Structure formats: structure tokens, C-alpha cells
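thought: user wants a sequence for this fold. calling inverse folding tool.
action: design(structure=
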């Protein structure tokens, strides 16, 4: 029985939606899947997810927050766990964290096929030649890759990864959770019509720009909609000051960081979704909004833009440094110049292509490619050797 291990930093709602579908797809093939997470929680993503009752094995390498767990402890537990599990392939989320590279190192040492799960694009961060050279070396250790869409695939190919070894489907959420027919009955959280944005309050999300554009929009709109900014983070005090200075206290709502179930009422009753990031590897909140049948206004710097925003069909893009362009879109949306319901219906249909099923099929295709590649290489499979002794037992 082919056994694959999937490694994430920590398991949030959309990770679990993907893994549940992958587990089912593995069962259909007579395969087995195990999910690993480095820790139960981390500061950047304060998800509260339950792993109880999971139909597949889930192993948390640390019960403490990731920030309070030593690198050596995580690596020791990771290597011990992989050695005990002896997987036939390992899918690893990214190459930016040293702990993920430790998983790659274990796989190389044991000649175990690897799949890189990546959402990185060429534009989502400043690029330096020496770093790109280092990345070329790192990614050469993986046998296949699973990415979100075309910009992510193009970037890996530019780094020298074989295009035939790159599969898509990585960036998905549990679309069914946001089904508009299921969430429509939820209580309305804001009485007046509103634009919705969901972000961590960090610089790259470009929220000061969004607030400035929103203030300019209110100055020209007759019956202006409110703005709801869901999320929290380091910039909250700055944003609160800006809201007060712009005289937006009564029209901008800050409900804070919300768990998925708490977000649903906001998605159910918003008129339009706005995502203004300066750069973004993907932007899964756009998936969520489209799955809730919302029309979307999306920064053209987002990694998801090329794949999920069909201009004038599922939504519209804008330059996140051009305030007048965003002001115009906000005004058109709230005055009826944009066919919002038509855009929302098309968005809902289009985002079904980016679902946990797509993740499962893409992951399995990447695993099959990786296994075949290692098999053809003629390297002796170290999984046939006795397990390496290790002082730390898997819980």
C-alpha cells in the first residue's frame, strides 16, 4: 500500500478541507495518507481547529505554539516520526522554513520521493540573484511540485524546475463551507450595505491605501457603503488612528480576527469583496469570497489574480498603488454601474475549479510522478533498510 505523508506548518480550516478530500482519493486507490503539522498553533494564524474524529492519522510535532518550540526539538521529532512512518512519498509545504528543509533532508537521505507544495511567484517579494541561485539548488532536491496556478508554475520553471514535474491545484479552500445557499440565513452583522476585506493587519496587505481610497470614495459617493475590515495584527493601532483622522469611525467596522464560522455572516451579506495587497503569493480569502458568490475587486499583484479573476466576468483587477482606479471601482460597484450579481454568479462558478478535489488530484498526480522519477533513477531504496534508531519516540 502506497503511503504518503503531507507536511504543513499547522492545520487551519482550508488545510483540513484539502486533506479530507485527499484522504478519500487515497482510499479510492488503496493508498494511505498521514498528515503532519509542525505545531498546533502559530502567532500569524490563530486558527482554532479540532483534529478529533479525523478519519486519517494526524500527528502534531509540538503541542506548544510554534514560536515557543525550539528548532532542534521540532527537527528531532520530525525525523523520528518520518523514520517510524517510512512513507513512500512526502509532500512538503514550501522551502522557506528550515524545518521544511529538514523534511527534505530526511527524504533525500532515505531516497524517498518528495513533492514541493508551493505558492510562490516571481513578484511576491524582492528578488536577489544570490537568493535565487540558492533556491535553484534547494528545489533541485524535490522530485515533483504542486502549485496554485500559472504564475507559481512559471516561477518554478524559471528556477529550473522541469515544467512536466509541476502540477496545479494547491491553493483551494473548502468551497462547500461558503455555499451562499447555506450561509444566507445567518444574521446580518452590519445593518447598512458594505464592502468586505479580510486580512492580517501587516504592511503587504496595503490597508492604509485601502482606507485612503475608501475615504476618497465616500467624498464622491451619494449613498456610500460601509467598509468592514476583518482581521488583526501589528498595524491595528495605526489603522485605528487613520480611521479617526479620516472621519470614518461610523462607517468602517473592525470586528477583529474571526474564526471561519465567525466570518461566514460577513461573507453572506457583503455586497462586494476587496483585496488590495501590494504583493501576495496567492490570497485564499479571494477564493472564500468567490465561493460565497461575491463579486471581487482584486489587486493585480496577487498570486491568485491571473487564475481566478477573469476581467469583467468574475471580478475586476486594479493597480494597488493607483488610488483613483480603486475609487472608481468602489463608486461603480455601489452605484449599480457594475453588474454585481452577474459577477458574483460567475465568480461562484469559476472558483469551483479551485477546490479540495483539485488539490487531491493534483497532489496524487505529483506523487505518482515523483515515485516514478525516483524509481527510474535506479537508486537503492533505503526504506528497505532497518529503521534508523532515534532517542525520541513518536507519540
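)
observation: tool returned 395 residues.
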Amino acid at each position: 500500500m502506497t503511503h504518503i505523508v503531507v507536511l504543513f506548518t499547522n492545520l487551519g480550516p482550508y488545510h483540513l478541507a484539502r486533506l479530507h478530500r485527499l484522504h478519500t482519493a487515497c482510499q479510492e486507490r488503496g493508498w494511505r495518507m498521514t498528515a503532519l503539522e509542525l505545531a498546533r498553533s502559530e502567532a500569524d494564524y490563530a486558527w482554532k481547529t479540532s483534529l478529533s474524529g479525523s478519519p486519517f492519522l494526524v500527528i502534531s510535532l509540538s503541542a506548544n505554539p510554534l514560536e515557543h518550540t525550539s528548532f532542534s526539538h521540532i527537527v528531532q521529532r520530525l525525523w523520528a516520526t518520518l523514520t517510524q512512518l517510512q512513507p513512500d512519498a512526502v509532500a512538503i509545504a514550501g522551502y522557506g522554513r528550515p524545518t521544511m528543509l529538514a523534511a527534505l533532508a530526511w527524504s533525500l537521505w532515505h531516497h524517498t520521493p518528495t513533492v514541493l507544495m508551493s505558492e510562490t511567484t516571481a513578484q511576491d517579494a524582492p528578488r536577489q540573484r544570490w537568493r535565487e541561485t540558492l533556491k535553484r539548488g534547494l528545489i533541485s532536491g524535490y522530485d515533483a511540485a504542486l502549485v496554485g496556478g500559472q504564475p507559481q508554475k512559471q516561477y518554478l520553471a524559471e528556477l529550473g524546475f522541469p515544467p512536466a514535474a509541476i502540477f496545479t491545484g494547491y491553493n483551494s479552500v473548502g468551497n462547500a463551507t461558503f455555499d451562499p445557499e447555506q450561509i444566507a440565513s445567518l444574521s446580518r452583522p452590519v445593518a447598512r450595505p458594505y464592502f468586505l476585506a479580510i486580512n492580517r493587519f501587516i504592511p503587504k496587505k496595503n490597508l492604509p491605501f485601502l482606507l485612503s481610497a475608501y475615504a476618497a470614495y465616500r467624498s464622491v459617493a451619494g449613498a456610500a457603503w460601509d467598509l468592514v475590515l476583518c482581521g488583526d495584527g501589528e498595524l491595528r493601532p495605526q489603522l485605528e488612528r487613520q480611521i479617526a483622522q479620516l472621519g470614518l469611525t461610523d462607517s468602517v467596522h473592525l470586528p477583529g480576527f474571526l474564526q471561519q464560522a465567525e466570518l461566514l455572516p460577513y461573507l453572506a451579506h457583503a455586497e462586494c469583496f476587496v483585496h488590495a495587497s501590494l504583493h501576495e503569493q496567492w490570497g485564499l480569502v479571494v477564493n472564500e469570497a468567490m465561493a460565497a458568490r461575491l463579486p471581487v475587486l482584486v489587486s493585480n499583484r496577487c498570486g491568485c489574480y491571473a487564475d481566478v479573476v477573469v476581467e469583467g466576468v468574475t471580478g475586476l483587477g486594479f493597480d494597488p498603488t493607483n488610488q483613483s482606479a480603486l475609487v472608481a471601482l468602489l463608486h461603480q460597484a455601489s452605484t449599480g454601474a457594475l453588474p454585481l450579481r452577474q459577477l458574483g454568479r460567475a465568480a461562484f462558478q469559476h472558483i469551483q475549479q479551485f477546490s479540495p478535489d483539485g488539490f487531491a488530484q493534483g497532489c496524487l498526480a505529483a506523487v505518482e510522478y515523483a515515485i516514478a522519477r525516483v524509481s527510474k533513477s535506479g537508486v537503492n531504496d533505503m526504506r528497505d533498510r532497518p529503521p534508523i534508531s532515534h532517542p525520541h519516540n513518536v507519540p
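thought: summarizing for user.
answer: Here is the designed sequence. Residues 380-395 have pLDDT under 50 and may be disordered.
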